[in-house]
Specification:
With 209 residues, this protein is mainly α. The chain has one domain (39-208). Helices cover 80% and strands 0% of the residues. The N and C termini lie far apart (39 Å).
């Protein structure tokens, strides 16, 4: 691990501690938030997060937001963090293993090229793309998997950045839980839509093969 990686990790840990202290100060009661659901919903939420990162057509923002609203910040945040790391590394490795020709058959090449052009022009902003919940982690991971970036460098970057991405989404979702009508029914509807989108993606992928 080089000096740049160590500085990045140290800065991320410092910001993490400050952010965590701020969240506690804002009133996210740790004991109250834990154990709001059983093990099955937590495991299911983790699997959904991983799959939605790997399968690009599935929107992850809505799923993460509702998951945080339903489970609470302290339950949803670690799950979202772990799921995005696992999913992001999986996408990175898959795109590197499959190669550009195979990837471009199943992914929007125009979107890939836009992000590829941006990353070539602004290489130092890559960490920011993983830290702010605006940019699609799946597409960026595909682009980086097709680049010359080393796996170790990618892992350091996503681990040190995506906690902020998921933390912002989790706190927004948990704070909005009291204002979302019929939260359980809405979450079930989104989950059904997720399964339908996954089935459709599998069918189109098989058709293109």
């Amino acid at each position: 691990m080089d000096a740049r990686d160590r500085r990045l990790i140290a800065l991320s840990v410092l910001v993490f501690i400050i952010a965590l202290a701020a969240l506690l100060f804002l009133g996210l009661d740790l004991p109250r938030e834990f154990d709001r659901s059983g093990l099955v919903p937590k495991v299911l939420f983790l699997l959904v997060i991983i799959v939605e990162v790997i399968v690009a057509p599935i929107p992850g923002g809505v799923i993460s937001f509702l998951g945080a609203a339903l489970l609470g910040f302290w339950t949803a945040w670690p799950i979202m963090y772990a799921g995005n790391i696992i999913g992001g590394i999986s996408v990175f490795l898959l795109s590197r293993h499959l190669g550009r020709d195979i990837v471009e058959k199943h992914v929007d090449t125009a979107q890939l090229e836009r992000y590829n052009t941006w990353l070539r022009a602004h290489p130092k902003t890559t960490w920011v793309l993983y830290a702010i919940p605006v940019f699609p982690i799946d597409t960026i991971s595909i682009v980086l998997g097709l680049s010359a970036m080393k796996l170790r460098r990618y892992v350091v970057m996503i681990v040190s950045a995506v906690w902020l991405y998921t933390g912002i989404t989790a706190i927004l979702g948990s704070k909005a839980s009291d204002y979302i009508p019929h939260l359980e029914a809405l979450t079930l509807a989104v989950f059904i839509a997720f399964l339908a989108a996954l089935s459709y993606f599998g069918w189109t992928l098989r058709k293109k093969s």
